[in-house]
Amino acid sequence: MNDNIRNTAEEEAAIPVREPERQYYYIEKAKRYFEQMCEAAGRPLTFCVTTFGCQMNARDSEKLTGILERIGYREEPEEEKADFVIYNTCTVRENANQRVYGRLGQLGRIKKKNPHMMIALCGCMMQEPEVVEKLKKSYRFIDLIFGTHNIYKFAELLAMRMESGRTVIDIWKDTDKIVEDLPSERKYAFKSGVNIMFGCNNFCSYCIVPYVRGRERSREPEAIIREIERLTKDGVAEVMLLGQNVNSYGKTLEHPITFAELLRRIEKIDGLKRIRFMTSHPKDLSDELIEVMAQSEKICRHLHLPVQSGSTRILEKMNRRYTKEGYLALADRIKKAVPDISLTTDIIVGFPGETEEDFQETLDVVRKVRYDSAFTFIYSRRTGTPAAAMEDQIPEDVVKDRFNRLLSEVQDISAERCSRHTGTVQTVLAEAVNDHDDSLITGRLGNNLLVHFPGGASMIGKFFPVHLKECKGFYYLGEIVKE
Ligand code: SAH
Ligand code: SF4
Ligand code: F3S
Fold first, then answer.
1. Are 217 and 197 in contact (CB under 8 A)?
2. Which ligand ends up closest to the CA of 244?
3. Is the pTM of this model over 0.85?
């Protein structure tokens, strides 16, 4: 049906080789196919991007959304009603994968009833060959499959799918490429994630991320600054700098710079009010960074510092390259330099070979550091990682029991830590109308805690002094202080 759009040899030669120009060319091409598709359907077609996993994936989804909107698609928040559904997947733990398969079955049934529907899968799960094999065999209704390394080619792959009418599968093993200046569409007008680096070189023995996200690559500082300047001009007050290990930012650049130095430069950007970053690996957290945090007016008083385990023996098997004592000393240095800091962490329970004594060491770290909050995970065996082949995988009932004990400890401490701000006045960024009560606004403190206070939608994206009247365990009820 699309022969009139197919390129002649001459046009073929005119396809830009350079990026991002090439993708802008394919956006225009996809737009022409899209218009035909809308005509055939007799209505404007819609899309829905569903994100699994971490903030990296959330940011990637904003890039996909930016491209789809340029092509002409309208966003449909309800997946079941959309004509083009894209799953941006995560594979960090097995249950993330199971969720995707479960929902795919359901999508397949919806697709049978909607002849104009397309389904695309991308993200970390697609970097695993056995996943793609399974999709090819058992989920043949999928239209487009691509991975993490070639996500910037989304427009080109989509145009290819529209042109051929056949399933397009394109997965790359790795890349050293970073493509700048593609369109993207922010979920929030007033805050944005900003990638500062991609990939990971740490190879923690339990973790699949280095295999599915490739080697560590930093963006040039100038490109990052340019992006943030543009964002602030467009109304963004808060940025979250994203990387699997932001503390090793810049080490592999032609002109290396430290993460602390990057922060100093970002701090100077006019109009930017808050700076956050994720994730910090304890082994690379420098005194220079602590100093920059202590002096900064804009860096939020919140540090996410995953410990994973409190046992030096297990940390070594995890290839984390710090000890329990080293971690505790680091946490102390940070608390001393930034007294009001809120520390949060990630903890894995049930790593192969973990004994009750090892687990007690983890509880000990939790009690000593007193985290404001902690994400706790049950160890999940990821094919291809060194830990998956280790002996002494821990039985499920033992892990569950430890997990519950850890959770209750973590929650008690969080509640106590949260309540320490009761009665104070804090600067709060109004983020959204409350889900349950639309006379309330939900806002975020610098330390990442939430507060609900009376207000209306017009306040979203602005800062207010809020009196924290009552702590409800993990959040506050408050009231704006009239000046
Ligand atoms: N780069 C970040 C974390 C990325 S993954 C860092 O190093 O801190 C987010 C969290 O998922 C990790 O901190 C870890 O706690 C958890 N995680 C990763 N692999 C896991 C696995 N195989 N089983 C259980 N939890 C895992
Ligand atoms: Fe995974 Fe470790 Fe890299 Fe984090 S630092 S992404 S846990 S390998
Ligand atoms: Fe998941 Fe990939 Fe992030 S595996 S946690 S979405 S980097």
1. yes
2. 1
3. yes
